[in-house]
Amino acid sequence: MLERVREIPGLIDVNSDLQITSPQLIIEIDRDKASSLGLSAQLVEDTLYSAFGSRQVSTIYTPTNQYFVIMEVAPEFQRDASALSLIYLRSRTGKLVPLDAVASLKRAVGPLTVNHFGQLPAVTISFNLKPGVSLGDATAAIQTLADRELPATVSYSFVGSAQAFASSLQGMGLLLILAVVVIYIVLGVLYEDFIHPLTILSGLPAASFGALFTLWAFKEELNIMGYVGVILLVGIVKKNAIMMVDFAIAKEREDGRAFNAEQAIFEACLVRFRPIMMTTFAALAGAVPIALGLGAGAESRRPLGLAVVGGLVVSQLLTLYITPVIYVYMDKFTSRLRKKRPAAQQVETHGEPAMAK
Predict the structure, then answer these.
(1) What one-character-per-residue DSSP string does 319-335 give?
(2) Which domains does the chain have, with CATH numbers?
(3) Is 291 helix (H, G, I), strand (E, B) or coil?
(4) Least crowded by CB within 10 Å, which of 166, 185, 225, 231?
(5) Burial 245-263 (b: 16+ CB within 10 A, else e)
């Protein structure tokens, strides 16, 4: 897995905390031969633990203290593996059997330490990113590699910066959808209409495109600050359409005969152009310093400023032309629905048989 991660482009300094540098001596027990000589594998293990472990066999009590008696072989026999040939095992018949007769010795190398994650033994693979490589792309590539290479008995999870990145973006898409749904419900209650809230929300795709394109152009990640900028942009951008649509709806309701939808939205664009530009430039003036990366810790906030500035510029250029057109078409669609409803109700009324006494 470590070698596969090193092959992923964009990653540098790939390393792990698994150090296979500790010399080990593996004792392989010939169970069939040991059984024929009256020995068991448990007896072999107990004997080795008594010789090289820390088996407590007694306690010495004194008037002021107590001392544990530990069984082990002499220190000079613990330095060389050849001393294992001097160990004898007592079988069930009482005879002494040398360890070499029932076991073979094999030298190997094992882990220097066994690290744990929670209660499970774990190996941590760490890495750094090359300049211009996003953490999202790196974690996605590692996740794809782990799903393909690791067996079902090995699980994995991200820790550190990768875990913080994954947890911070979890549910952000759902949050954006819920924000738009809440705005639609509030606008529907405000205008007592199901259609024109869609007109107001029609500028959001242009704003989202502007925000994402700006982040891509300046090679910035869509991190948690970028998502905050997009959510903030939703609230700022829809005010352009609200100013125009609110004026047009009020004008149609007050002077319905003198103004049709085209005339009402046209006058709304003329009257509300100045406040729309004032609020847009005020928002840009507040977001440009953040987008330029001025001040301490500005690098972390720069995606927020870029998202707001790019979304405002693109939406300002497009919504002034898109929103009036969508308003006219939505108004015509609403008028058609209103004409069909009375006709349907009239057909149902005349279709019922009249009864008289």
Answers:
(1) HHHHHHHHHHHHHHHHH
(2) 1-19+111-167 (3.30.70), 26-105 (3.30.2090.10), 171-338 (1.20.1640.10)
(3) helix
(4) 185
(5) bbbbbebbeeeeeebebee
How far apart CA 183 and CA 38 sit, in angstroms, is 82
- Say whether pLDDT at 355 is over 50: no
Chain segment 19-58, per-residue pLDDT in tens? 888 888 888 999 999 888 889 889 999 988 988 888 899 9
Query: Are the beta carbons of 127 and 13 closer than 8 angstroms?
Result: yes
Question: What whole-number distance in Å separates Cα of residue 110 and Cα of residue 286?
Answer: 59
In angstroms, rounded to a whole number, what is the distance separating the alpha carbons of residues 105 and 36?
20
d(CA 78, CA 84): 9
> What number of other Cβ atoms are within 10 A of residue 21's Cβ?
10
C-alpha span between 179 and 174 (Å, rounded): 9
Measured between alpha carbons, how far is 304 from 232 in angstroms, rounded to an integer? 9
Provide the pLDDT confidence category of residue 241 given band limits of 50, 70 and 90: confident
Report residue 344 as tokens. 């349907």
Residue 202: CA atoms inside 13 Å, Cβ hemisphere, count?
Answer: 23
Average pLDDT over the chain, rounded to an integer: 83
